[in-house]
Write a structure and sequence with these properties.
Helix content: 10-25%
Number of strands: 14
Largest sheet: 14 strands, antiparallel
Shape: globular
Strand content: 35-45%
CATH architecture: Roll
Order of helices and strands: HEEEEEEHEEEEEEEEH
Number of domains: 1
Distance between the termini: 106 Å
Radius of gyration: 27 Å
CATH topology: Lipovitellin-phosvitin complex, beta-sheet shell regions
Structural class: mainly beta
CATH superfamily: Lipovitellin, beta-sheet shell regions, chain A
CATH class: Mainly Beta
Length: 324
């Protein structure tokens, strides 16, 4: 080929392909199954691992995007000393779906108003792995980089509204989107974090093949800006300088990975119930843990037995002889 035009031609092909594609596209009539694996270390507490298998089914297309049903097959929590299959005590069978645009914005979710908060939060987490703002190289606010393009956006995920920066690079199988959440945009008050989400778009699959999240979190590791230790107190000089007080470190770090397993024809397409359904945001707010069911009679019998032992206990210093 005369001259070195090949790189330019490749770039044009990439731009045309990207401009005509959507990055989140679950084909109707099929179920996409993924495995989820996350590991977290909380300082001075321990290590935690969550394992899950989740299915995603497109149950309806509209002008806003696709409504995707979430089906949790199994979910287990492991620690160093215990292993708890959460699915045994939580009901994941109730309806949960989310509406997502071709560029990854989750507009809202649907679930029954009486569903367990923990179950809803976990399903929101499974949906929020896809939450993003995936922009094409030809859009106006996008700037070119050495190996692709980048942009700044404000978006909403399970942690709520926040600002983020994306960098994108083409690959042989699609595109890699790397999102960095701006520091300080963490839902925990006075917390800072380093958060990165990497989304691997597969053009043959039509959606994300792998999504990986990495985060380091610190809470209350320094005095909040504008804090006045003498506010509402007598103007007496303290024995210790407040500015020299050291806070105990409260920190955590973790990773999460969602990996595509298979795509197969769905046996049936579920339908969202017409009544008793709440429309909500993807934002996970307050989660009220459901109190476990307690067998009152069994516990009362246990208490009664202990009280009987206490009543029949011999006085201190009494010698009891046992004859055989």
């Amino acid at each position: 080929m005369p001259g070195n035009h090949f790189p330019a031609i490749c770039r044009i092909v990439v731009l045309l392909t990207c401009a005509s594609s959507s990055f989140i596209n679950f084909e109707p009539g099929f179920e996409y199954q993924y495995k989820y694996d996350s590991n977290a270390n909380v300082k001075n507490i321990g290590d935690f691992q969550v394992l899950a298998k989740v299915g995603y089914i497109n149950v309806g297309d509209s002008g806003d995007g696709q409504e995707v049903y979430v089906k949790v097959y199994a979910l287990a929590l492991k620690t160093k000393h215990t292993e708890d299959t959460i699915g045994h005590r939580l009901d994941f069978s109730k309806w949960f779906s989310f509406v997502i645009t071709p560029h990854g914005e989750i507009l809202h979710v649907y679930h029954p108003p009486d569903d367990d908060d923990e179950a809803v939060a976990m399903k929101k987490g499974a949906a929020a792995m896809f939450a993003s703002r995936l922009h094409q190289a030809t859009e106006g606010h996008v700037h070119a980089t050495d190996d692709g393009w980048g942009y700044h956006v404000r978006e909403t995920g399970s942690e709520g509204p926040h600002n983020a920066t994306y960098t994108v690079r083409p690959t042989l199988t699609g595109h890699v989107f790397t999102k960095t959440r701006h520091p300080g945009h963490h839902p925990v008050k006075h917390a800072t974090s380093d958060y990165t989400k990497t989304l691997y778009y597969d053009s043959a699959l039509g959606t994300m093949h792998t999504i990986q999240v990495e985060e380091k979190l610190q809470v209350m590791h320094k005095t909040a800006e504008g804090y006045n230790p003498y506010e509402n107190s007598r103007p007496v000089k303290a024995v210790n300088n407040f500015t020299e007080i050291k806070y105990p470190e409260m920190s955590a770090q973790g990773t999460g990975k969602l990996v595509f397993l298979s795509r197969h024809k769905a046996v049936s397409i579920p339908s969202r119930p017409k009544t008793d359904i709440t429309r909500a945001t993807i934002h996970i707010k307050e989660v009220k843990r459901k109190k476990p069911a307690i067998d009152v009679k069994e516990h009362l019998q246990y208490v009664k037995g202990n009280l009987t032992c206490m009543r029949n206990e011999p006085e201190k210093g009494t010698v009891t002889f046992i004859y055989v």
